[in-house]
Amino acid sequence: MLTYPQFRPKTLDDLHYHQGLSIRLKSLAASADFPHMLFYGPSGAGKKTRISCTLRELFGSGVEKLKIDQRVFISPSKRKLEINIVQSNFHIEITPSEAGNYDRVVIQDLLKEIAQTQQVDLNAKHRFKVVVINEADSLSRDAQAALRRTMEKYTSNMRIILCANSTSRLIAPIKSRCLLMRVAAPNLEEMQIVLEHVAKKLKFDLPEEASQQIAEDSGGNMRKALLVFETLKMQSPDLSGPLTIAKPDWEMYCHKVADLIVQEQSPARVMEVRAKFYELISHCIPATIILKVKLSIWVPNKLTDNSQTVAERVVERVDEALKADVMHWATIYEGRMRLGSKKVFHLEAWTVKVMSLYKNFMYNFDMADFE
Amino acid sequence: MSFFQAKSTTTNVKHSVDPAHQPWVEKYRPKTMDDISAQEHTIAVLQKTLVSTNLPHMLFYGPPGTGKTSTILALARQLFGPDNFRNRVLELNASDERGIAIVKEKIKSFARQTPRAQAVASDGNVYPCPPYKIIILDEADSMTQDAQGALRRIMETYARITRFCLVCNYVTRIIEPLASRCSKFRFTPLDSTSTSSRLSHIAREENIDVSPEVISTLIETSGGDLRRSITYLQSASRLSSSTNPPVPITPQDIQEIAGVVPTAVVNDFARTLGVSVDEDMDMDDLPANGKLKGFHSVQKKVKEIMRQGYSASQILSQLHDTIVLHPTLPARQKALSALAFAEADKALCDGADEELWVLDVGLRIHKAITAP
Ligand SMILES: Nc1ncnc2c1ncn2[C@@H]1O[C@H](COP(=O)(O)OP(=O)(O)O)[C@@H](O)[C@H]1O
Ligand SMILES: [Mg+2]
């Protein structure tokens, strides 16, 4: 990650927010009785940072000497899977979702291997090795089932740390074998403190308004906030004066597509919008993000705050209903998109649905005017 | 990788674990049937088999953490004693490869050796030691139909010298010909009195202070699954004893460990959706229910909750209870909400976006409640 790796906190004491969590982690790392753990929370909240600080607390700076290996696993159907593995003498880090449907093989083989080897470093503070599993919520059910037994059997030389955005997709037996650590997104003040801290290290005077605006704009995602800060600083070296946080190109592009939908509802427009979807998807922008960003732009845009006349009030009331409907269909199509194979179909279907809702609403409204 | 794997944790403790660091669920696994809490009926029937030593094939079913595995292990231990346990009891766990061949092989070689009778054990006690072996098939409901079919024949072939005990969560997933050969024993979620006394017992043994509030939070969050409540208790005690100086365990600790969303957060969400929650009733001036909040306040609240990192399925399940068990909400509104919850649950299992679904459910409930 290019966002100031040199300022990434290394120890639990360096961490700025969620002090309570850090204290707990510190004392757990000190006790002989370190449990399996599950860190969960929104992305950019600092789960990974917290995990690496915990590892450092457990084993000292040796965990920072990392090497990256490529390992080959053989699936039951004899397919070769190549997986990247980051490891130190004390821990190993994997992202099994890289193995797709064969994640169970990776989990079983790797964990068994680790569980059966003893810690070689006699000076190690703990007998066990830690296995960090990233994106644990995308593990298949089979892989989770395989994990379940391993977690019980090999507690003497292995501990597992799972990292996930949510616990919803983890099976209950796994959750009940872990100590759950919820890492909430930092709030505005907490983000500002981190930004100001980094600024200070850079010997840079970050105006209060700037840090506030960056924090507000990043929706609780610390990684994003730091990225924005870095970009802004490159653009205008002193960050004074009015600040415009440039949205990424693709986000601007999403805005345009949203506008297209609101401006005109016609088959020709659908074709136009579809071409733009293709463009976005071909640039590897995930379809869920496209949908969500578009929503966040144009659903709120419809808000008219100071309604004075009766007519305006009516609009606002009906408008409300429309907003909920637009959201509802976005939710439905997002779900279908995940199960289906052609993302663009569902984006398109949503577009048509929204156009039709919108047209209907305008039409009914016109009619009401006449009565 | 075999379909069944001999379970090493209970039958032979290879990895010598320091008892101080042993998971409490293992440390406090009942040793005899008398130690099993609740399940009185099942235990009463099984106690008789100790006297008659005439054991049928058995099928244990019921939700997790209710004592199924513990009961069969205790029964086997009481029948055979410590010396013979190893060569008389085979415990097999369902694994991922669904082949029956290996099971068959294992059972075959295990059942072949004829049991020796040896009544007085090294601990000086006399054990009934009946002339058969017990084969425990844990998690039997994850076996394929084919495997279960094959098992039926195996059961017949070795009927003279073996007794099978199938253990599962869902009895309906066991094929009829297999189920009908077994005496069925149902295990029910533990009632709060039994859970409470078991937890207090453990707390006493471990010398930890546990308040009645903590116990009742443990009961609430574990839904009759004793394994879960014991694990939660151990995690909480780890956390509280590792702080310096040690602090007492609070109900909030338990909720956090169990991943439960604090009641205040759920109530707050419900209120944003237009549902009046209990505490509102006590307030002097009733909440301005007429002043309902719109799309944006729902959206804002959802964002706020999601940023706290709570899991969508947990929020929805707690909100579900608040709404469905609500004392005054009209049935129609509850029904409309229930539809939304059901759809969301399915979608979340399919891996759909969590925030979108929580918002969608919120908006639908809001609509149901504010509809004229
Ligand atoms: N009825 C019970 N009485 C006493 N302890 C129980 C009971 N049920 C569960 N436990 C506790 O929970 C743990 C798991 O129980 P187990 O018998 O493995 O449950 P399952 O029904 O899932 O097989 C045991 O180690 C024990 O500590
Ligand atoms: Mg069991």
From TrEMBL, chain A:
SUPFAM superfamilies for this protein: P-loop containing nucleoside triphosphate hydrolases, post-AAA+ oligomerization domain-like
UniProt xrefs under Pfam families: DNA_pol3_delta2, RCF1-5-like_lid, RFC_C
Membrane among keywords: no
Gene Ontology MF term list: DNA binding; DNA clamp loader activity
UniProt domain AAA+ ATPase: residue ranges: 33-186
Cellular component GO terms held in the UniProt record: Ctf18 RFC-like complex; DNA replication factor C complex; Elg1 RFC-like complex; Rad17 RFC-like complex
CDD domains tied to this protein: AAA
UniProt GO BP: DNA repair; DNA strand elongation involved in DNA replication
Keyword Hydrolase carried by entry: no
Keywords carried by this UniProt record: DNA replication
Protein name per the record: AAA+ ATPase domain-containing protein
Organism: Rhizopogon vesiculosus
Automatic annotation (TrEMBL), chain B:
Statement: the UniProt record of this protein carries the keyword Glycoprotein: no
Pfam families: AAA, RCF1-5-like_lid, Rep_fac_C
Domain AAA+ ATPase: 54-191
Compartments (UniProt record): Nucleus
One Gene Ontology biological process: DNA strand elongation involved in DNA replication
Keywords on record: ATP-binding, DNA replication, DNA-binding, Nucleotide-binding, Nucleus
Gene3D superfamilies reported for this sequence: 1.10.8.60, 1.20.272.10, P-loop containing nucleotide triphosphate hydrolases
GO molecular function (one): DNA binding
Location, primary (coarse class): nucleus
Superkingdom field: Eukaryota
Any single GO CC term annotated in Swiss-Prot or TrEMBL for this entry: nucleus
Similarity comment: family membership: Belongs to the activator 1 small subunits family.
Name of protein: Replication factor C subunit 2
The organism of origin for this protein: Rhizopogon vesiculosus
Native organism taxonomy: Eukaryota, Fungi, Dikarya, Basidiomycota, Agaricomycotina
